[in-house]
Design a protein that fits this description.
The protein is α+β, with helices and mostly antiparallel strands. The protein has twelve helices and 22 strands. The strands form four sheets. Strands 1, 2, 9, 10, 11, 12, 21 and 22 form an eight-stranded mixed sheet that branches. Belongs to the L2HGDH family. It comes from Cyanomargarita calcarea GSE-NOS-MK-12-04C.
Length: about 400
Amino acid sequence: MYDFAIVGGGIVGLSTGMALGKRYPCAKILVLEKESRWAFHQTGNNSGVIHSGVYYKPGSFKAKFCHDGSRSMVQFCQEHGIQSEVCGKVIVACNSQEIPRLENLYSRGLENGIEVKRITAEEVKEVEPHVSCVAGIKVYSTGIANYKQVCLKYAEIIQHQGGELRLNTKVEKIVKSGKNQVLETNNGTFETRFVINCAGLHSDRIAKKSNVDPQAKIVPFRGEYYELIPEKRHLVKTLIYPVPNPDFPFLGVHFTRMIDGSVHAGPNAVLSLKREGYKKTDFDLGDFAEVMTFPGFWKLAAKHADEGIQEIIRSFSKAAFTKSLQKLIPEVRSEDLVPCHAGVRAQALMNDGKLVDDFLIIHGQNSVHVCNAPSPAATSSIEIGKAIVEQIPEQSHLLTAINV
């Protein structure tokens, strides 16, 4: 019998397990992950950025979690000797039409309590000499980290707290047993008083197994990256972002210096034909049919048809991808870029075609379901874990059992 069972061993699931162990040191905690290692999917394939929160709507969960999370993540990395660096980033307007949007970002950053500064094109070149722009803003608190190392440390802490970690364990069915729930897996059966669903790309499916309406469907989008060859890494000193299109839910291709010194360029954003489809050739008939028969997807596709077509073109045309990057750094050439790993983003989508733009946390009977944890989930993971745990005391019978 466990007090808490967490489904999903990405950064949110592990941070929640760590927060539970700290708050309830006598509780029996179980973390289940279907893959052979932690942070296998979204966490292990992200850009490694410690986000500042400059983009997010003031007052949103994203803004609050990111503001606090960027500080706690930097502190955690420093305390545990994990590779990280607060290098800052520039967001640039490439033409005069983008300046009003840049100003809006600057104002939003101030509202969110972030240290930002307007800088001229000349001042941008002092930071990033190879960038072409008409104006920019400097965001000081943006950083980079090795999130795989972060997850391994979270897992280590959970074990030291007395928690149990199980890899290669896929939840196939959830059955109620009185006030408790039984998780039937490919690797045994586990009974628990409380379920916390942090299953990322499969979070909506796990919610349904627990007889909870996820209120949205996960639609997978693949983000494809190129990497600058070592001889061209000098073109990027920190992180370089364009002004995002406010009507499109993705940030646009950008340059990110990784913690290992490499420089990644991207991502684009295209529909993945499989929930864990990291290659163009990856295909799952069930996953594909689920998206194609979902009305929300077609409403989203119709709204963003032009942008979607451009993303698909960039996916299949290196020349088109390079041209997008040249808006930021004209010196970049196609031969300077080599393909590197892709990531898949679990995007929650409503039936009316609206993207769930914030964290979506749904309560069930003796369960909590994190049904949308988009970027900046990695940055904010410590704060998200705390927030999930803070919502559990409403379950009075559970706390009584733990404290006995």
